[in-house]
Amino acid sequence: MSDSDGNISEDLEFDYDDDEEVSFSEFTADENEIDLVNKFEEEVYIKKDLKKEAPSANRLQARAKYKAWSLEEYINHFFISKCKKLQSMKLPNCDFDDILIMLHAKNWGEESVINGCYDNPTKFFEDCGLPLRKRNNTFEVVKNFLCPICCSDDDIQTETYSLTCNHKFCVACYTRYVVGLVHEGKLITCPECKLSIPHGDVQKFVNVYNEQQQSGSSVLNSPFKFVVDDASKAFVKGSPIKTTIDLSSFELLKYAAKRNIDSNPGNFKYCPAPDCMHLVELLSPAKDGRTESENGKTMDEENIYKVPIVTCPKSHEFCYSCQFENHLPLPCWLVKAWIKKCNDDSETANWIDAHTQSCPKCDSQIEKNGGCNHMTCSTCAYHFCWICLEEWAKHGHQYYACNRFDPDTVNAAQKYKKSKRLTLKRYIFFYSRFSVHETSMEGDSKTLKKVNEKMTKYMNEESKRRNNAEVSSTNSLSWIDVQFLHDAIRQLTNGRKTLKWTYVFAFYLSKSNFSEIFEQMQDYLNKTVEDLSKIFEEIYAKKKDSSNLIMQNKLDIINLSNLVAQRQEKMIEFAFTGLEQKLLRLEEEKPESSLEPVQTQTQGQTKRKQR
Amino acid sequence: MHTFHKRILKEFKRLQKNPLPGITIKPSETDPNDLSVFVFDITLPPDSDGVLHSIYRSDIYQLRIKITDDYPVDSPEVQFLNSHPGSKIPLHPHIYSNGHICLDLLGSGWTPACSMESILLSIQSMLSTNELAERPPDDQAYVRTAPLNPKKTTFDYHDDNV
What we know:
The complex is a heterodimer of chains A (611) and B (162).
Chain A: H1 3-22, H2 24-28, H3 31-51, H4 59-62, E1 66-69, H5 71-88, H6 96-105, H7 110-119, H8 121-128, E2 138-143, E3 157-162, E4 169-170, H9 171-182, H10 199-215, H11 230-236, H12 251-263, E5 268-270, E6 279-282, H13 291-294, H14 301-304, E7 309-311, E8 317-319, H15 332-343, H16 347-355, E9 356-358, E10 365-367, E11 374-376, E12 383-385, H17 407-469, H18 479-508, H19 513-541, H20 546-552, H21 554-580, H22 591-610
Antiparallel strand pairs in A: 1-6, 2-3, 3-4, 5-6, 7-8, 9-10, 11-12
Helix pairs in contact in A: 1-21, 5-6, 5-12, 7-8, 9-10, 17-18, 17-19, 17-22, 18-19, 18-21, 19-21
Chain B: H1 5-17, E1 23-25, E2 37-42, E3 61-66, E4 77-81, H2 116-128, H3 139-145
Antiparallel strand pairs in B: 1-2, 2-3, 3-4
InterPro entries (chain B): Ub_conjugating_enzyme (IPR050113), UBC (IPR000608), UBQ-conjugating_AS (IPR023313), UBQ-conjugating_enzyme/RWD (IPR016135)
Keywords (chain B): ATP-binding, Nucleotide-binding, Transferase, Ubl conjugation pathway
Protein name (chain B): Ubiquitin-conjugating enzyme E2 13
């Protein structure tokens, strides 16, 4: 909006456009690289058209092509639709429930279900825990029933459940049993034999449990009445699950989906926001699920600086590759390094460093509390050696052949310590700025919440007044008029977030002419963000008539938030272009080399224990 | 009192009245009001096949079963004891020298329909079918770092041969 800013940024653009030509000879050497860049830019435009991104969208961010999934969508797409497809194939002696169980037992592989059904149906049914005769799962009330699990015969009439195998247990015990197992996401079998409980019945037990929890009485203490209504009666009696029932809300399928994603993530990742169960699938072919574990090794320079920012269905924004908040303009590997650095001071981090290692495949932190060095990651089921973190299969039958002393790694550890001490001062300087903005971000969100409340109150009063007068006065505001406030609020937090990370960027940046330009842009962004924040602060501080103040400052707020957006975008773009064309250099080494000495230390410890 | 007092009481009475061959419950170790810890003397069933050639034929081992709060939904805590003079831990490729047992029934294989009796029977059969007088390969390392409660260890059940 503001002319002056536009001019500044245009000047800057010219600056590095020139340099691109100067260093052009470097680039002609690799034409493929340029092609790649062009391709990405095409994608950017497609993406922008499709998604109609918020004004803060920028080049870097738009690079990631992705699809946001909710867990329900995942279940429908990967489980239910397969099930329906198989149902339409009219497999012999199978209803919908059976197919669902078969697919679940065979890890959702359609092929193996079809083959199993035709090759050796008897064995296949047995494998999946399906009865060979007609299913006869029954909820019934039995007189003087003695449940083999709880051995309680207090009630004259007991509600029981049994599968076709006719192993009866009381519903209370069954519920406890099912609820205890549903989290594993595997098929649940009869406690006595291998028959699988259909998904619909599992959900019924889960529902019973939830009702119990809500009514506050424990399953353990009260003999509850299990209400079998007409609909569920039909449901239980082995009639196929009605498609009208929302299968994707089944608890067991949800956990099965989680299990499926955990063991075979592909391009799927969870949204890292607390309590958010949604997923994001990356579609861009340049990056796949494995790149994270391979870190810098196989990724070319191009990819190292790419930050795929994605937004989950609940509009939580995060970086796909490191599952952290939007940390533009800083590349992921430096975020990791920075966070590690910041945490180095805390005891917890030290403890984690000394006692845990991260799984070489999925990076989950693992503590070894006993047993041999053959580790199986509980998250991704990867088998590896605790000492050398290599795949276990490589070890064969020889135990601990990886235990060889290497003086080089010890030297590297010393060097690492020395350089760490040198950068400490620098680190403190940037860290204080980083943390100041982090705390301001928290303060901002509080202020903004209050401002928002005030505005809502004001609007409510306004609408009341208007209703009373029953005259549409031209002076009063509509909700659309105050929309600017929400946008500005979002913009302020966004701007601060970027600003916060530019300090970390500056920390790793080696000094050059371009780094000075970067710092200058940082100053501009800083000033704009502070100005905007100040206006909100004033509104917040003012006790009376703050809504009028908001309206008075409307123009300023709009202008400033646009300015923040522009400067933020320019800043990120400058940082990215700078890195891409090697005008800006980030100093710190790649994560593997910086982590290495730490690992050798733990190696030493483990070795001593072992001998 | 335990929520499933009745069930535990029933199991206890059953083991007292109809003892399994080779297994004696030691009531002195059990508080009849509490019923949370049971100690058994376990030997091979005297008249079974191959008992004469077994490496365990002349030994009596002590097994302790601790009932957890969530029993029978949750499996009990089971281990061999060597606290009493003369008692020792059987030499077996799935039994660690601190008395911990690697058996799927005590972990993922447990269902509420299992009982103390089924545990005793499967441990007895574990002993009677084994011919190797050795400890698990990672015994030393495991025992040094093992938690007191065997249930806190996650075993990897990969060896079905013994």
